[in-house]
Design goal:
613 residues, alpha/beta, Glutamine Phosphoribosylpyrophosphate, subunit 1, domain 1, Rossmann fold, 2 domains, 7-stranded antiparallel sheet, 36% helix, binds 5-amino-5-deoxy-1-O-phosphono-D-mannitol
């Protein structure tokens, strides 16, 4: 996600911005830019691609040793990566500039209103509306204008604002996107998306909270409420992280950080796309009207690895709720079989990176055969998105750990939204049902957030017992069968323990031969429509003295009686169980890999983006 850096003080600002942005590179980005004030004027420089391009650009620029400015690395959400879409964005005069991280959900409405007022837009971003909106309210007082502007805004933001009319201040504001402030006693103030950007200069940090803003000056800063400017006393924290720890926000590994980012990743993926009160789902990315949707004879979901597991879950959802036959293909198989595709088939490639070679090849074949392509992807502007007719973006933010975690749960979220959307357009899901499911989805992020620390502790205990196991079996039924596959994949890829996922009903058709006192078997047993069936399968394992871990519904005391370990999860709408039930499995793999001393973030032989066949 985007990175923000700002400084005002006696030091030269441009080197501080470039160094700070470099330290935020881990967040992922596709363009970069900066602004500074010189001789009472704003000077702006931006470039597409890596930070090195911006650095090269700045080599030929005389910044006059400016002492106030803002910088930004952009991770595209609205509009492809380009110089015009790179931040900072300006108002009509070019003298007021904004850097932003987050999503302005009502940007379209605001943009139309501002255009009608005569504002001229030069980018496709949601951020540019902020610059024009602040301009609209500006009457000599930048702080008041920012306060007024954000009242019109729906969505998330971390903001840095600068205006040549008040050349001594930077204004910062936050709502649901991270922003920290740094203080260098008597030598200036900083703002940044994350602490690593500030570590070369100061360890005195203030965390800006949601609905707070700050005014930064060379000699100090004030923090106040965003709504009414009420002054706030903020604690100054002294950070003792080293740079590597700081990049991971204090987590030991990116994978763990990303597991903990899942509440936000899920929220960001459905945010702005559903109205829980009315049950209305907005997915304009699909670009097919109800008549075209009615003509669809089949849907193909094409993906690799973890993304393929997301596709397998979606087959259960789509066939149950929409009633269109769904085929799920591993992309490397799809591309080499006879494909019976055509305009009446919708093909949905699913890929976190948007660059996976096999998935891309499958997409190209399907497009040649005349099928409509709607991809599900996390990386804006990636090849798969560029070659699709439309893309439903997951807004998980950059995923650095090779083992996919938050990208998976946000893919599931996007696929669940797709199910609700098709059910709405094809009238296969009644309004009341949609409201119920939309509300359940909205309730999910805080549930995940609350459960994560407890689950990590539970998995720590299990990991201590099982970290020396040689094999592992994962069982599930229905939409939790793919979660069993995903649990097994996570374990093998980061801990190198051999693991298999099975549909629980398949146990007696072969794998039961493996069960002995040494074999750990983890089964997913939420109290859903197939609960009794999975319990019977579990009893078969118990009868052969397998070591059982059961993950099921809170209050189901029978589990503790059957299992060596029972792990409980809250009862939620059972459709959404796959999103919740995968989380303890991710944590178990993580803790086991850690105990075995494995390189969790970069497991042997694996790459984050598999761009070869
Ligand atoms: O970027 P993609 O989603 O297309 O990647 C697909 C697989 O390579 C990926 O999910 C892989 O299986 C992960 N390492 C799983 O954790």
């Amino acid at each position: 996600m985007c990175g923000i850096v700002g400084y005002v003080g006696p030091r030269k600002v441009v080197p501080i911005i470039l160094e700070g942005l470099k330290r935020l590179e881990y967040r992922g980005y596709d363009s970069a830019g900066l602004v500074y004030l010189l001789d009472g004027k704003v000077h702006k420089h931006r470039s597409e691609g890596k930070l090195a391009n911006l650095e090269e650009l700045m080599e030929d620029v005389d910044d006059g040793g400016s002492h106030i400015g803002l910088g930004h690395t952009r991770w595209a959400t609205h509009g492809p990566p380009s110089e015009a879409n790179a931040h900072p964005h300006s108002d009509c005069s070019g003298e007021l500039v904004v850097v932003h991280n987050g999503i302005i959900e009502n940007f379209d409405t605001l943009r139309r209103e501002l255009t009608a007022e005569g504002h001229i837009f030069t980018s496709q971003t949601d951020t540019e509306v902020l610059a024009h909106l602040i301009e609209e309210y500006l009457d000599g007082d930048l702080v008041a204008a920012v306060q007024a502007a954000v009242r019109d805004v729906e969505g998330s933001f971390a903001l840095g604002v600068m205006w040549s009319g008040q050349p001594d201040i930077l204004v910062a504001a936050r709502n649901q996107s991270p922003l920290v402030l740094g203080i260098l006693e008597g030598r200036g103030c900083f703002l940044a998306s994350d602490i690593p950007a500030l570590l070369p200069y100061t360890r005195n940090i203030i965390y800006l909270e949601d609905q707070e803003m700050a005014v930064l000056r060379a000699d100090g800063l004030e923090v106040m409420t965003l709504a009414d400017g009420r002054p706030l006393e903020k604690e100054i924290h002294t950070i003792d992280w080293n740079a590597a720890m700081a990049e991971k926000a204090g987590y030991r590994h990116f994978m763990l950080k990303e597991i903990y980012e899942q509440p936000l990743a899920v929220l960001n993926t459905f945010r702005g796309r559903l109205e829980p009160e009315s049950g209305v789902i907005n997915l304009p990315e699909i670009g097919l009207d109800a008549a075209e949707l009615r003509n669809l004879s089949r849907i193909f979901l094409v993906a690799c690895g973890t993304s393929w597991h997301a596709a397998l879950v979606a087959k259960y959802w789509l066939e149950k709720w929409v009633g269109i036959p769904v085929e799920v293909d591993i992309a490397s198989e799809f591309r080499y079989r006879r494909l019976l595709l055509g305009p009446e088939v919708l093909v949905i490639p699913i890929s976190q990176s948007g660059e996976t070679a096999d998935t891309l090849a499958g997409l190209r074949l399907a497009a040649k055969l005349g099928s409509k392509i709607i991809s599900i992807c996390n990386v804006v502007g990636s090849t798969i998105t560029r070659e699709s007719d439309g893309t439903i973006y997951t807004h998980a933010g950059p995923e650095i750990g090779v083992a996919s975690t938050k990208a998976f749960t946000s893919q599931l979220t996007a696929l669940f939204l797709l199910t609700l959307y098709l059910g709405q357009e094809l009238e296969t899901i009644e309004r009341e049902r949609r409201i119920e499911m939309a509300r359940a989805l909205v309730a999910l992020p805080p549930i995940i957030e609350k459960e994560l620390p407890r689950l990590q502790k539970d998995m720590d205990v299990l990991a201590a017992d099982f970290s020396r196991s040689r094999d592992f079996l994962y069982l599930g039924r229905g939409e939790n069968f793919p979660i069993a596959l995903e649990g097994a994949l996570k374990l093998k890829e980061i801990s190198y323990i051999h693991a298999e996922g099975y549909a629980a009903g398949e146990l007696k058709h072969g794998p039961i031969a493996l069960i002995d006192r040494e074999m750990p078997v983890l089964a997913l047993v939420p109290q859903d429509r197939v609960y009794g069936k999975v319990i019977s399968n579990v009893q078969e394992v118990k009868a052969r003295h397998g070591r059982m871990i059961l993950v099921g519904s809170e209050g189901d005391e029978a589990l503790a009686e059957i299992a060596d370990y029972a792990v409980y999860l809250p009862r939620i709408n059972e459709e959404l169980n796959p999103i919740l039930y995968v989380i303890p499995l991710q944590l178990l793999s993580y803790q086991i890999a850690n105990m075995r001393g494995c390189d969790v973030d970069q497991p042997r032989n694996l790459a984050k983006s598999v761009t070869v066949e």
